UniProtKB/TrEMBL annotation:
Chain residue ranges for the region called Disordered: 281-357
Protein name: ABC transporter ATP-binding protein
UniProt lineage: Bacteria, Bacillati, Actinomycetota, Actinomycetes, Kitasatosporales
Cited SMART domains: AAA (SM00382)
CDD domains: ABC_Mj1267_LivG_branched (cd03219)
Source organism (scientific name): Streptomyces roseicoloratus
Amino acid sequence: MTTTTETGAAKTATAATVLDASGVTMRFGGLTAVRNVDLTVREGEIVGLIGPNGAGKTTFFNCLTGLYVPTEGQVSYKGTVLPPKPHLVTQAGIARTFQNIRLFSNMTVLENVLVGRHTRTKEGLWSALLRGPGFKKAEAASRERAMELLEFVGLASKAEHLARNLPYGEQRKLEIARALASDPGLLLLDEPTAGMNQSETRTTEELVFAIRDRGIAVLVIEHDMKFIFKLCDRVAVLVQGEKLVEGTAEVVQGDERVVAAYLGTPYEGAPGAAEVAEVEAAEAHAEAEAAAEATAEAAEATDDAEAEDAPADADADADADSDDAEAEADGGAPADAAPADADAADEQHSTTEGDSK
Ligand SMILES: Nc1ncnc2c1ncn2[C@@H]1O[C@H](COP(=O)(O)OP(=O)(O)OP(=O)(O)O)[C@@H](O)[C@H]1O
């Protein structure tokens, strides 16, 4: 495996655009998971996509690969707008791996890679059923290519093993080999090192460089920052569905908004900060009103008690009323808010399309 560890940022600055996502927005009911995101990947580049949990990274991948139809925006590959259909996106030249490994566990390692080749084989159904010479030739070529890919990822000696018997790190490599089998020009990797130990992670790093050196551009989601900053020519940071920063590893690492987003400290102009401030102000206002009401009721009760000349009882009533008022103030706001939250949750559930990770 030949690898180049230089970032090549200068080399790629003028290279042709492979992926061009513009204004991509994805809403699930009331939730905007991705908001107006632009992103390009050029030939020869490795681009990273990072962000805290729930930032919208996988949703964005799903929009790029046609698994989701974006609410707004469009995705182009090498200058052509992609239809939002996974098989057409693969055919166009974009392949991906998933956060949760998706292999055919009862098939062999080789068969898994052969499945990935089907978008590139032209033999039709009849040819396959009759197993004519055309089919046999195509099948031999596919096997040869699949074995070459297994060699490339270091799994050739396990070609006949069942996929389910591979250790976790090798299953991830097999997923990459299968994605490469469709001869993509762009590979999307969703958390390729999740669950790997340090040495497996280093091997994956080498593998990604080697993929780039084969002329395949890479867009990678990863939580391992060391991996991302070592690997990527450019890194884009998503926070609450919006692209916060994009630049070289140095630019991103030095940006205080990125640090704040990961540590959870709000900063001026943070996505969603206005909404949070609005909710906090409304809560403070409701609390102040409830407290004022409670004080007024307590004062009224004291007056009544004094009028009836029964100080001990009146004090007790006033305390009780005041407790009631406080209880209302505490319980009232969330109780009012609950149905709205429940609606939002229902809406969200109703649009959930199963496991798209
Ligand atoms: N199919 C769906 N239906 C409803 N909400 C969804 C759906 N898919 C994702 N979401 C929501 O969109 C938001 C973004 O989720 P997403 O999985 O894209 O984040 P992520 O950045 O990939 O997170 P992680 O790093 O944890 O994988 C979350 O609030 C999630 O619950």
